[in-house]
Write a structure and sequence with these properties.
The protein is mainly α and 778 residues long. The protein contains 28 helices and 14 strands. The strands form seven sheets. The chain has a two-stranded antiparallel sheet. Strands 3-9 form a two-stranded antiparallel ribbon. It is globular, with a radius of gyration of 27 Å. The N terminus and C terminus are likely disordered.
Length: 778
């Protein structure tokens, strides 16, 4: 590749663009007494380079030792089948590959800051922020020694002529080439709110008051508001399994609606945890923020707290205020299928031939159709055998660590792996001159467009309702073209808001036969990591269950089922985690503001008392519970406040979550240079063909299912709402057939291949014209 069309840039522009907001907000600066300030600054400036480097080396040693202890503990627990639900959560949140290097560098940095602050503590009678007392040169020395500079200031080479997005998301924005790339800090739409202004979560100090009131334990909130009435009991070792929890069916949404939300969430964000393990003891550490159990909680038999491991910090330009990293690209680019790191992406490809295919399972099939390959990313342990040790079936490998969490997720990951291979095979038939790289990239490009189209055309209208379609500047369905000034990064608040989908989860998983009759109904808690069930019965029964069963309806007195409120990752032990408590604790961990701050951000009213909150929620008794727990609406955690709001018209979230989610998807689309509708990404003929894309057709093309609903995310009854696959329009790949004279496709490859085709054609013509002469002579 020549120098023309290439550009080499550093991250300087990006760092300027994402300088932490705290540095520009005087209200968050350290303000001790003048004498204390002078004393601590004087002490800090006496720290020479050698002292700073010793602190960094000590920090590295502490972090590396903690990581090794955690890994050894996990390996031993996996070997002896003594893994707890908290261990499984940690496994799913474990950083691997390049992400691990980035996480460690940031952990070195923040640990070094802690060590230096402790060293200087005797010089001040008041608390202080370490980055406020160190000089710029000292901060740069620490930043460089921890490896943060190397991670954030990497030189990136972009091929401006390439028609394909990079695996890492780099080079999407030509002005700031790392904007939207993987392993970068989350965006912040509001300033972080930490107890100490730097990193301690709200609620860390139990006696501390916020707006005049202490924060309640998130488990208490879960018990009082999330749980169903009279459903707080927790059976440890029941002789007979209790009946599956009753729910209210959503008369307008299928389980597929919920499952698609999880699938695309795994395309956009993943926040890895710090490496140490956190047990059920209640000691807080820099890495552990345990959830205290309230009195009379049935989980008290298992310990005083629910373990909680904090998300890994980001280097964040060297500032002390804590931010976290998104290990994925924020774009809807099918990274859950292809990965967000180059080495991982290569691991998922079939490189034994030049056909551009993804790797498939070479040990078993789904009635002749491909399953995902067994395996895990490098450094990620296989834990799926825990779901049924007798079967000893391992994990499937895909572009995201979390692929094996649930059968519906495995089914969708398998479906789009097959779709890639179907597209690559058909493109090869149409364009025999294309090599494996071109076939892979073209199929990947189409799959990414398919997921974009399904999300914006089929899913978001049903999620956001009238807020999606109304004629407003914020309406995310109005595409006005690519805007390089739009920041596409995932915002921290979105990672909590988009967990609304937990309220639609059913307590059981249905598998249906070809006539859509129930083959099996199993408890949700028995399906975690159960890859053996997919090997046993394939993905078709799971997909039918997603299509023909309604989702759970979110109601204010039925927010989430106990399968995820008490039994999350209950695989080897009888008691699991509380996912809803984890959602609220995570919001505090990452420094999210309270409910009213986000209502103000969304342009909504901010209730100041119980009466005003009752009007917003349209539920006086629920408002009363909130005030009893939080004291003021200002303190309410975003997740619980958001899911408690009445649903917007024709949608499945309230006004606050609709605003946050709509803004995020608009940013993702408008800040994506490779968005399928952006002119130049696809030809006009290709864009027209892509308008026929639908999820039902993708299911028809890649499974043995022959009857599907036209509107897959709506609640459908068989056979009334189902049609034969022959009636569902196909995506025509004819516009992708290369023409040597005017294709415009894969410019780096076509000149050579077209010349080769012309030579082969001339040779074939010569042979045909001389065949009669050859017979005469010989």
């Amino acid at each position: 590749m020549g120098q023309k069309g290439m550009r080499v840039l550093t991250l300087v522009a990006f760092l300027v663009a994402v300088t932490p907001l705290r540095a520009r907000d005087p209200s968050l600066r350290w303000k001790p007494k003048q004498n204390d300030r002078l004393h601590v600054i004087a002490a800090a400036r006496k720290l020479g380079t050698s002292a700073l480097l010793r602190s960094v080396e000590k920090a590295k040693q502490q972090v590396n030792d903690a990581y090794e202890r955690a890994q050894e503990s996990l390996r031993e627990k996996l070997r002896t089948n003594k893994v707890t639900p908290a261990d499984l959560m940690m496994l799913f949140k474990q950083p691997v590959g390049q992400t691990l290097e980035v996480v460690k560098a940031a952990d070195y940095l923040h640990t070094a800051y802690d060590l230096l602050k402790e060293k200087l503590r005797s010089a001040s009678t008041e608390d202080f922020n370490i980055t406020d007392v160190l000089s710029r040169v000292q901060l740069q020395t620490i930043y460089r020694a921890t490896g943060c500079e190397r991670q954030e200031m990497r030189t990136v080479v972009c091929d401006e002529q390439s028609p394909y997005r990079t695996i890492t998301g780099e080079c999407n924005n030509r002005r700031i080439i790392t904007l939207g790339s993987s392993n970068r800090p989350y965006a912040r739409w509001l300033l972080q709110e930490y107890e100490d202004g730097v990193s301690l979560p709200r609620g860390w100090t139990e006696t501390k008051r916020y707006n005049g009131f202490p924060l309640p334990s998130v488990r208490l909130v879960s018990n009082e508001i999330v749980r169903y009435p009279n459903q707080i009991r927790l059976q440890q070792q029941p002789q007979q399994p209790p009946p599956i929890q009753p729910i209210t069916d959503d008369s307008s949404r299928s389980v597929f609606f919920m499952q698609w939300g999880q699938f695309i969430d795994h395309d956009m964000d993943f926040g890895p945890s710090v490496t140490p393990l956190c047990g059920s003891e209640c000691a807080k550490t820099p890495s552990c923020f345990p959830i205290k159990l309230p009195p009379n909680d049935p989980k008290l038999e298992q310990g005083c707290c629910i373990p909680f491991t904090r998300l890994a910090p980001a280097c964040n330009g060297g500032y002390a205020i804590r931010n976290q990293i998104d290990a994925l690209t924020p774009f809807i680019d099918a990274s859950q299928v292809y990965a967000s790191e180059v080495d991982w992406a290569l691991q998922l490809r079939n490189l034994s031939n030049d056909l551009g295919l993804l790797a498939v399972n070479n040990r078993t099939t789904d009635r002749g159709l491909a399953l995902l390959p067994f395996g895990t990313p490098k450094g990620f342990p296989d834990n799926c055998h825990l779901s049924n040790p007798a079967k000893n079936v391992g994990c499937f490998n895909a572009g995201d660590n979390r692929v094996n969490e649930m059968p519906g997720l495995i089914a969708l990951q398998t479906l789009f792996m097959r779709e890639h291979n179907r597209l690559a095979t058909e493109l090869k038939r149409m364009n025999p001159q294309w090599n494996g790289t071109v076939l892979y990239q073209e199929a990947r490009k189409i799959v990414g467009a398919e997921i974009q189209i399904i999300t914006f055309n089929e899913h978001l209208p049903l999620l956001l309702g009238n807020t999606f379609s109304r004629n407003s500047q914020r309406a995310p369905n109005r595409y006005r073209g690519y805007n390089e000034s739009v920041d596409p990064r995932i915002a921290s608040v979105f990672t909590i808001a988009f967990r609304f989908g937990h309220t639609s989860v059913r307590p059981s998983v249905f598998r249906l036969d070809a006539q859509y009759r129930v083959m099996n109904e199993s408890r949700l808690e028995d399906e975690f990591l159960a890859t053996w069930r997919i090997v046993q019965s394939g993905i078709d029964p799971v997909l039918r269950g997603l299509m023909a069963r309604p989702a759970k309806l979110l109601k204010q007195n039925q927010i989430a089922v106990d399968a995820i409120r008490n039994d999350l990752f209950r695989v080897l032990v009888k008691v699991g985690l509380d996912l809803l408590s984890l959602n609220m604790q995570r919001g505090r961990d990452i420094g999210l503001s309270g409910y009213n701050a986000w209502r103000q951000f969304a342009g909504l009213s901010q209730p100041k008392n119980e009466a005003e909150l009752a009007a917003v929620l349209r539920n006086p008794s629920l408002a009363k519970k909130f005030i009893e727990l939080y004291g003021t609406p200002d303190n309410i955690d975003l997740w619980i406040g958001g899911v408690a709001e009445p649903l917007v018209t024709n949608g499945r979230v309230g006004p606050l979550l609709a605003s946050i989610i709509g803004k995020q998807f608009q940013n993702i689309r408008d800040g994506d240079r490779f968005w399928w509708e952006n002119p130049g990404v696809f030809t006009p003929a290709q864009r027209k063909a892509l308008t026929q894309v639908s999820l039902p057709r993708i299911i028809c093309d890649n499974t043995n299912i022959r009857e599907v609903p036209r509107f897959i995310f709506r609640a459908n009854q068989y056979p009334r709402d189902f049609v034969n696959c022959n009636t569902i329009p196909r995506l025509s790949l004819f516009p992708w057939k290369a023409k040597c004279e005017s294709s415009g496709l894969v410019p780096a490859d076509l000149p050579h291949t077209c010349a080769l085709i012309r030579r082969k054609t001339k040779t074939a013509q010569w042979r045909r014209s001389h065949s009669g002469l050859q017979r005469t002579l010989f």
